[in-house]
TrEMBL record:
It comes from Phoxinus phoxinus (Eurasian minnow). One of its GO terms (cellular component) is mitochondrial outer membrane. The chain crosses the membrane at residues 29-52, 226-247, 253-271, 309-330, 355-379, 444-472, 594-616, 636-666. This is Choline transporter-like protein. It comes from the Eukaryota. It is found in: Cell membrane; Mitochondrion outer membrane. Choline transporter. Belongs to the CTL (choline transporter-like) family.
Length: 697
């Protein structure tokens, strides 16, 4: 006799009269992974302690003089500015390689406010008193040749201004001629030079600090606009709460209102961009291309280019078209999705504390991100100062490491009379410094693992609470007291290992994606097209793999929360259940996700439009209140990202609720048949949409 063929995607769930929702009598799962996770956390703490012991963030905050001392700190507290003896030495290509000018540097209280030479200042007591402030040490009664030979003082001073805690020549222009201190020339103690000779040195000296300049301006913008940013984010919170409350009572109407408002907001964006595009038609310089313009730190420059607005129009038009086409083809499925959202609204109504759970998740993620960031900074600044030989002429010891304390008596100094042992950069040759890159890698990997663990904990906790609601025969009587706290306790007590297992898999994929991005960055200038193509394929594959693992983890955590089985068994059960109902998954669950995404998009769009008109000052109503900023796009982008995170936090509760109810709904259809002995537990409205019903007792 032929054996009965086994179903391709497993046996459907059988009716179980004792099943009343999340299993209470359960045991610990994935214990080995739990132990491994705890050991990894202990190692992470050890790395943090090691980094905090050796690291010093002052290395990236304050400038360092030739002796490796921090300007503005300790004994140099009243000397916060760095002064270069010879700015023209900064024109050396080695500046770009080692980020240090091959000229003595000292910390000073203020920058020189006039141009003079050592020879002239030496004979004038008043000038000499001012000049000595810029010497490495008091020259005493030494002659000018001795001072220059020992490089105790600069050969000349140039009128300078502080910039990024450093003294740079005050260059200006008279017509097309470059000037310094209103003079076209200056003396370096040996000959008269043109002011333009300083440009190359200044350019190289500042190339490393341009990013810091932009960062400082951005920081200044935040200090001026943080109050208004918080107000905008508060508006996003209020809008999100309003939408959640309205969804609770008017889910059907709100879904269609959301859809229409998203279409209207995008249509307004297209109209606004079109008006800007037309108005710039006759403006001077508006027809140059973005490629010709290149990268500009001031993003407002791009808003004066027609091509920018044309790009906005095309992007918004494509998004609008996609949304309209999806609505046309999915209009019938939206009805079922609306019922699922109504059911989710009722579930959240019975578990109102779930709306505030994202705050707990956000708090834990903030700790993880802060720990990673602080550890990364301390690791990157835990290197030691490295000193190298700098010489004005050819020298066999040039750019070799040296020790400043006994350099004057060394063979290097004996051979290279005019050489100096100056601070070059931060590094180190100890075993700790050799393994710094490995510690940084461990820091990043544990960051991904811990962040994924926190997210997974939130998903499992919410899933357990909402499953308790769905499987309660008599609502709310059969719903356990404090379902969210009970679910959180079960997740931490029994399933820390399962959470760590799923998070580990996702973290491995994410760290591989980071490595691929790093390799791609290194191969930017490569001409090997096959390597670029292969790398692009790998990045695409791992992106898809990450999305799939996130989807599977999410459903696996739901099954763990309900049945208390280990991660692999739960992932298998969830996958088989979804495959047995693949049509419903594609056309129902994803439609619901799309509707919730439109809700986030609407909140971000409304708050973003308000932020744009407020911070850009393009509306007369806000011109008096809006702060004066370097880059008004800084608070706008912050508001957009913050609004999305806030909306995502609130709507993620809905999304998790929908996903949990969806899996429970699929199991309900398999376990029960609507008879009086095995009634469906879904709502009557959902039964009507599915054309099913419960038989009367």
């Amino acid at each position: 006799m032929d054996m009965e063929e086994k179903p391709k995607y497993g046996e459907p769930k059988k009716y179980d009269a004792s099943f009343k929702g999340p299993i209470q009598n359960r045991g610990c799962t994935d214990i080995i992974c739990c132990v491994f996770f705890i050991v990894a956390i202990v190692g992470y703490v050890a790395v943090g302690i090691l980094a905090w012991t050796h690291g010093d963030p002052r290395k990236v905050i304050y400038p360092t003089d030739s002796m490796g001392q921090y300007c503005g700190q300790g004994n140099l507290e009243k000397q916060p500015l760095l002064f270069y003896f010879n700015m023209m030495k900064c024109a050396s290509p080695m500046v770009l390689l080692e980020f240090q000018c091959p000229t003595p540097q000292v910390c000073v209280e203020k920058c020189p406010n006039r141009t003079m030479t050592l020879v002239n200042a030496y004979v004038n007591p008043f000038d000499w008193k001012e000049y000595k402030q810029f010497c490495r040490e008091d020259p005493g009664q030494k002659s000018v040749p001795q001072i220059l030979q020992e490089k105790l003082c600069p050969a000349y001073l140039i009128s300078s201004k502080p910039f990024l805690q450093r003294c740079f020549p005050s260059l200006g222009k008279k017509g097309e001629v470059i000037t310094v201190g209103d003079q076209e020339t200056f003396s370096d103690g040996e000959k008269t030079r043109n002011a333009k000779d300083l440009v190359a040195g200044m350019k190289n000296a500042t190339v490393v600090m341009e990013g810091r300049q932009v960062a400082m301006k951005i920081f200044e913008d935040y200090t001026k606009s943080w109050y208004w940013i918080l107000i905008c984010l508060l508006i996003a919170v209020v809008l999100s709460l309003i939408f959640i409350v309205l969804l609770r009572y008017l889910a059907g109407i709100m879904v269609w209102v959301m859809i229409l408002m998203v279409i209207a907001v995008i249509a307004y964006g297209i109209a606004h961009c079109s008006i800007k595009y037309v108005n710039l038609k006759d403006s001077a310089g508006s027809n140059i291309t973005l490629q010709q313009l290149g990268f500009q730190p001031d993003f407002s420059v791009y808003l004066h280019i027609r091509q920018t607005w044309l790009a906005f129009i095309i992007i918004l038009a494509i998004v609008e078209l996609i949304i309209i086409l999806l609505l046309i083809f999915l209009r019938n499925r939206i009805r079922i999705a609306v019922e699922l959202i109504k059911e989710a609204s009722r579930a959240i109504g019975f578990v109102m504390s779930s709306l505030f759970y994202p705050i707990f998740t956000f708090f834990l993620l903030t700790i993880v991100i802060a720990y990673w960031g602080v550890t990364a900074v301390f690791l990157s600044t835990s290197s030691e100062p490295v000193y190298k030989v700098f010489n004005e002429t050819e020298c066999s010891y040039a750019r070799q490491t040296c020790i400043p304390e006994n350099y004057s008596l060394s063979a290097m100094k004996a051979e290279c009379k005019r050489s100096e042992c100056l601070f070059a950069f931060y590094g180190g040759e100890t075993p700790y410094h050799k393994y710094l890159i490995g510690l940084q890698f461990y820091n990043v990997f544990l960051f991904f693992w811990c962040a994924n663990f926190v997210t997974a904990l939130g998903q499992m906790t919410l899933a357990g609470a909402f499953a308790s609601y769905y499987w309660a025969l008599n609502k709310p009587g059969d719903i356990p007291a404090f379902p969210l706290c009970a679910s959180l306790g079960r997740s931490l007590r029994y399933h820390t290992g399962s959470l760590a297992f799923g998070s580990l898999i996702l973290a491995i994929v994410q760290i591989i994606r980071v490595l691929l991005e790093y390799i791609d960055h290194k191969l930017k200038g490569a001409e090997n097209k096959f390597a670029k193509f292969l790398l692009c394929c790998l990045k695409c594959c791992f992106w898809c793999l990450e999305k799939f693992i996130k989807f599977m983890n999410r459903n696996a955590y739901i099954m763990v929360a309900i049945y208390g089985k280990n991660f692999c068994r739960s992932a298998s059960d969830a996958f088989l259940l979804l495959m047995r109902n693949v049509i419903r998954v594609v056309v129902l669950d994803k439609v619901t996700d799309f509707i919730l995404f439109l809700g986030k998009l609407l909140i971000v769009g409304l708050v973003g439009i308000f932020a744009f008109f407020f911070f850009s000052g393009q509306t007369d109503a806000f011109k008096g209140a809006a702060p004066s900023l370097h880059y008004y796009w800084v608070p706008i982008l912050t508001v957009l990202v913050g609004s999305y995170l806030i909306a995502h936090g609130f709507f993620s509760v809905y999304a998790m609720c929908v996903d949990t109810l969806f899996l429970c709904f699929l199991e309900d259809l398999e376990r029960n048949d609507g008879s009086s002995e095995r009634p469906y537990l879904m709502s009557d409205n959902l039964l009507n949409v599915l054309k099913k019903k419960n038989q009367a007792n």
